[in-house]
Structure formats: structure tokens, C-alpha cells
Amino acid sequence: MKVDVLTCLTVAVASLVAMVTGGRSSGRRRHKEIFLGENSKFKFGGRIDYKLKKQDSTKTLLIKTEQLLRIEEHDFAMRPGFGGAAIPVGIDVQVESIDSISEVNMDFTMTLYLRHYWKDERLAFPSHNNQSRTFDSRLVKKIWVPDIFFAHSKRSFIHDTTMENIMLRVYPDGNILYSVRVTVTSLCSMDFSSFPLDTQNCSLELESYAYNENDLMLYWKNGNDSLRTDEIVLSQFFIEHFRPSSGLAFYSSTGWYNRLLINFILRRHIFFFMLQTYFPTMLMVVLSWVSFWIDRRAVPARVSLGMTTVLTMSTIITGVSSSMPQVSYVKAVDIYLWTSFLFVFLSVIEYAAVNYCTTLEEMRKMRRGKLPSSFNASQAMAFDGCFHDNDMELTPFPRAAQGLASEPPPNASPQRDPRPSEGTRLRRQRSVRENVDLLVSNSYMIDSYSRLAFPLSYLLFNTIYWSLYS
Questions:
Q1: pLDDT confidence of 48, banded at 50, 70, 90?
Q2: Which letter, b or e, does each residue of 432-463 get, where b requires 16 or more Cβ atoms within 10 Å of its Cβ?
Q3: In this structure, how many other beta carbons lie within 10 angstroms of the beta carbon of residue 131?
Q4: What's the CA angle centered on 68, arms 62 and 69, to 5 degrees?
Q5: Which end of the chain has fewer CB atoms surrounding its CB within 10 Å, N or C?
């Protein structure tokens, strides 16, 4: 009897302890849940329920979006309205920058925002507030988008930092805006016949790769206002204007395609080339004229000056040619450089003629005995410039007639001379040989004529050159 009573008491005590312990632990869990719920409500402003915290809301949103746009119900490998009329796709472009223009490669690099507008009723969705939905590149891969490419492009890429720069905006009625930021390097056929006083016309061409004009019709969304540009500043060019245009491209195997063109005209800044090419060339030509004022017997001075100007002009021509494409026609800068080089070369040839005539003159004087026997012509020609013409006895100008009879005595009666008078002989035209002999006998006259002829000729050349190419 006592055992039964003890057993009953033990069971009762154990039950009481279990009830007390269970109540406390459940109370603790309840208080913890309440504390976390209030804390999460305070942290997120009451928008997230604690019981939904363990659920993935992004997956839920993605499923709802695909169901809303009915992406799984349609085959987006086909264009909208397949089998019917061509789908119109509007285009507008905002040019962000022209990164580079290369004359050597004949191309340009441009960064732009390319926007497409079309309507796909398969993506229409019901909306009470008529608001659009915006997505990124992850949804673009699941729907149909126009396959626009850049004709005559060398390289192009879509910017992907930090994500692909692609935006898709879908409206409730099925209208779509698709925008992409792209950098493209495209060919530009340049004409350098007037370089560096040239104007280049380049164009960026867009068209569909797969869909011809029967399936897809490209057009500028807002006409001439479809092309917008930011403030673009280039180092060597001035952009006169941007102009959109359109046309058709024909391929023999696939047919006609709509093509949109972005034309822009570039006018080159001349000031850079004036500082780097034209002004140095002018200075070298003028420097070559200094030799005309140096004594003709100062051989080292005049030869070194002439060779220096010739080599400097060769360096300028080589530097300009290395930065230009190897074209088969003559450029405007080539005409100016080679003509200037010719003037410098002629100044060296001029001194060679002066030196030769001076040598002949000295040799004639030696044969006539006009120079002392101790005079060394070679040493005089290599003098440093301090030797002057008045240090030697120069032969006077030759008389107009040689071998004339001696003057008659004063008491002789005057006789009529049938030959022309002295004045008549001085006015007659000299032969070429006489002019050469006169020039050899007076070689200093070559320098005197060159001091006037060279500057006037170069001034005439510059007048004609700048009037033609400016």
C-alpha cells in the first residue's frame, strides 16, 4: 500500500516539474519570436513579415514577371507579326564621344547610346496605373530584339561595367524601348589630297543583319531630331555638323535592307600643322638665304649653312610622311614641303655656281698676270671671309670692240667712220656667250640677283598655294 502511494507521488511530482519546465521554455520561445518580429518590423519599417523572411522574394518576383509577360507562352525566336507586314523599328542615337580619329588606319571610334523602339503585343500586360516595367540584360536574352549591326565596322563592344549597359522598358500596350551603350570603331574613307587643309566626311551605318525590308523596316524615330550629341571637343578636328540620313543596301543573295546613316563632317584645325610643319619649313627656307650675304670666299660658312638647311628639311619631310598613310597621290603638304626643299637646294646650287665662277675669274687673272706670282687661288677660296674683292686688282669690264684703231692725232682731219658709233655698239644686244663671260667676270652679281629673286619667287609660291587650298 505504501509502495503505491509513493509511486503516485513520484509521478505527480514529475508531471508537475515537466509542466513547469515546458511552460517556461515555450514562454521563452514565444518571447524570442515576439522580440525578433518587433525588431524586424522596426528595422524594415513593417514591410517584411518575419514569417516570410526565409522565403526568396527575388525568385517569387521573377516568376511573377515571366507569368505577367507570358514569356513561356510564345516563341520569341520569331519576330513580332511573323508572316505579315514588316515590323517598324524606330531608332534614335545619342553620341557620347568621338574617342579617336586615325588617319593611318582610316577609321574613327565612337561611343553612343543606341535606342530601339518597336511594338510586340506578345509582351502586353494588364496594368491598373499604366506604368511601364524596366529590366536589364537578364530578361533581354529571353525575348526578341532587333539584330542591328554596324556596317563597315572593325570592332565594337557593349560596355559591361559593372553590369552590361542594357536597358529594356516594357509598356502595358506592348511598346518596347531597348537601349544599349556601345563603342564602335568604323571605317572612314578619307581623301588626303588637301591635307592638312582638308575636310573629311565620315558616316556610321546601321542595318539589320537577318531581316530585309520585307520583315523589318528601320526608320529614324524623330526625324532629324533623332540624332543628339553631347559637347564634343576633338584635338585636331572641328565638327561642323551631324546629320542623320537613310537609304537602302542591296546584297545579291539576300535582297534589299534598310540602312540608317549618321553623317558628320570634320574640318581639320590648321594651327597645329602651322606650328609643327609650315613655320619650321619657312624658317629653313629663309635661313638658306643668309648665305647670299656671306662673302663668296667663305667656303666653310656657306657650305655648312647650306648642308644644315638641306638636312633639316629632309628631317621635316620624313617626320610628316611617317605619320601619314602611304597613299599613291600627292598631298597638299607634300607640295609645300618639296617646293620649299627645292628652294633650299637651289640656294646650295647657287653657291656652287658662285664658287665656280669665282674660280674661273681667279684663273683668268693669273693667266693675264694680274695676280702676284705668290697668290694661291685655293687658299683664297678657303679663306674665312675676311678677304675682299678690293684686295686684288680686278680686270676692268671688257671693251665693246677689240682691235680698234688707235685714236687719230689731234691735227688729223676727221674722217667719217662707216662703222657704228661707240654709243650704238653699247646699246646692241649682247650674245649669250658675252653674258656668260660678263657673269663669270663679275661672279658677285649672282649673289646680288639671288637676294632679290629667291624671296620674290617664294612669296609668289606662298600666295598661289594658300589661295588654292585655303
A1: very low
A2: eeeeeeeebbbbeebbeebeeebeeebeebbe
A3: 9
A4: 95
A5: N
Round to whole Å and give the CA distance between 396 and 438: 11
Q: For residue range 152-164, what is the model confidence (pLDDT) as tens digits?
A: 999 999 999 889 9
Q: Give the per-residue pLDDT at 128.
A: 79
Residues 6+ apart with CB under 8 A from 435: none
Name the residue with cell 627656307.
285
Question: Rounded to an integer, what distance in angstroms lies between the CA atom of residue 143 and that of residue 123?
Answer: 9
Cell numbers 658662285 correspond to what residue? 354
Is the pLDDT reported for residue 148 higher than 70? yes
What sign has the CA pseudo-torsion 229, 232, 234, 237? positive
- Say if residues 50 and 44 touch (Cβ distance below 8 Å): no
- Quote the percentage of the chain above a pLDDT of 90: 47
DSSP state string for 29-48: HHHHHHHHHHHHHHHHTT-S
pLDDT tier, 11 (very low <50, low <70, confident <90, very high otherwise): low
Position with higher pLDDT, 349 vs 361? 349
Q: What is the residue whose three cell numbers read 518580429?
A: 37
Angle formed by the axes of helices 332-368 and 279-288, nearest 10°: 10
DSSP secondary structure of 296-362: TT-HHHHHHHHHHHHHHHHHHHHHHHHTS---SS--HHHHHHHHHHHHHHHHHHHHHHHHHHHHHHH
The amino acid present at 122, given as its one-letter code, is R
In this structure, are residues 166 and 172 in contact, taking their beta carbons and an 8 Å threshold?
A: no
Alpha-carbon span 463 to 454, nearest angstrom: 14
Model-level pTM greater than 0.85? no
| Residue 202 burial (C-beta neighbours within 10 Å; 0-12, 13-18, 19+) | buried
Residue 460, amino acid: L
Instruction: Kindly report the backbone phi and psi dihedral angles of residue 407, in degrees, each rounded to the nearest multiple of 5, phi listed first.
Output: -65, 140
Packing angle, helices 332-368 and 444-469, rounded to 10: 170
Q: Span 405-432, mean pLDDT?
A: 52
User: What torsion do the CA atoms of 72, 74, 76, 80 make, to the nearest 10 degrees?
Assistant: -150
Predicted local confidence at residue 417, as pLDDT: 53
Q: Is the Cβ–Cβ distance between 117 and 167 less than 8 Å?
A: no
